[in-house]
Design brief:
Blueprint (H helix, E strand, L loop, with lengths): L7 H10 L1 E9 L8 E10 L2 E9 L8 H7 L3 H7 L3 H12 L3 E5 L2 H14 L9 E5 H8 L8 H7 L10 H19 L1 H5 L1
Helix pairs in contact: 6-8
C-alpha cells in the first residue's frame, strides 16, 4: 500500500480493529539465488498482540559469509534446527492467513525473498485480502528528514522498545513497536482529518 495522508486512516483501521501481521526474514544473502533461513511474524488483532511465529529454514544454497556475520546463523545450525523450505513457508502462510495488513521494515526486500522462495520451491503464494505496509515508507512520510531510516536508527531516534539484533523475531517485535508508534504517535493528525 502506498503511504500517503489518504491511506493512513485505512492503515490505522487495520491497526485498531483488524489484523496486522508484522514479519521479517533472515536470508543467506541478497541475490536472486539466495534463500530464507529464518522467518518470524507477530500477529496483532484489534491492536493487541495475539500470537508469535518463528522458524529456522534449511537452505539448499550456500551461506554468504557476510550474511552469516550479520545474523549469526550457520549452515550447520540450520541443518540441525531448520525446517524444509516448503514446510516453513506452509507454516508461515497458515499463520499469516487472509485479510490482514502485512507489515515489514523494507517490505520490498522481504516480499521479494518470499516470492523468490515460492518460485524456487514451487509453493503457491496468493493470499486474499492482504495489503502491505513498509515501515521505512511510513517513517519517511511521518518523520521526514531523519538521517537514516534503518531499523536500528529508528528504534534509537524514536525511543522504541526493542532491539535490531538481526534475529527475525527480535526485529519483528521492534518493527511492530515502530509501526504502532509511528501510526498513533506521529500519524494521528492525518488519521483524525
Amino acid at each position: 500500500m502506498r503511504i500517503s495522508a489518504n491511506t493512513l486512516p485505512q492503515i490505522a483501521e487495520y491497526a485498531r480493529s483488524g489484523r496486522v501481521v508484522v514479519f521479517d526474514t533472515e536470508t543467506t544473502g541478497c541475490s536472486r539465488w539466495d534463500e530464507i533461513c529464518q522467518i518470524a511474524a507477530v500477529e496483532y488483532v484489534d491492536g493487541v498482540r495475539a500470537r508469535t511465529f518463528s522458524v529456522y529454514v534449511r537452505p539448499t544454497c550456500e551461506m554468504n559469509p557476510w550474511a552469516e556475520g550479520v545474523h549469526g546463523l550457520s549452515l550447520d545450525f540450520l541443518a540441525e534446527h531448520g525446517l524444509a523450505p516448503e514446510e516453513a513457508m506452509r507454516q508461515f502462510f497458515e499463520f499469516m492467513g487472509n485479510d490482514a495488513l502485512l507489515v515489514a521494515h523494507n517490505n520490498k526486500f522481504d516480499m521479494r525473498m518470499l516470492n523468490q522462495e515460492c518460485r524456487k520451491f514451487d509453493i503457491s503464494f496468493a493470499p486474499e485480502g492482504i495489503e502491505t505496509c513498509d515501515t521505512i515508507a511510513l517513517a519517511r512520510h511521518l518523520r521526514p528528514g531523519l538521517g537514516s531510516y534503518s531499523l536500528a536508527n529508528l528504534i534509537e531516534a524514536l525511543n522504541i522498545d526493542g532491539t535490531n539484533s538481526h534475529d527475525a523475531l527480535d526485529d519483528t517485535l521492534a518493527c511492530a513497536g515502530l509501526f504502532f508508534k509511528l501510526l498513533f504517535g506521529y500519524g494521528q493528525r492525518f488519521i483524525n482529518n
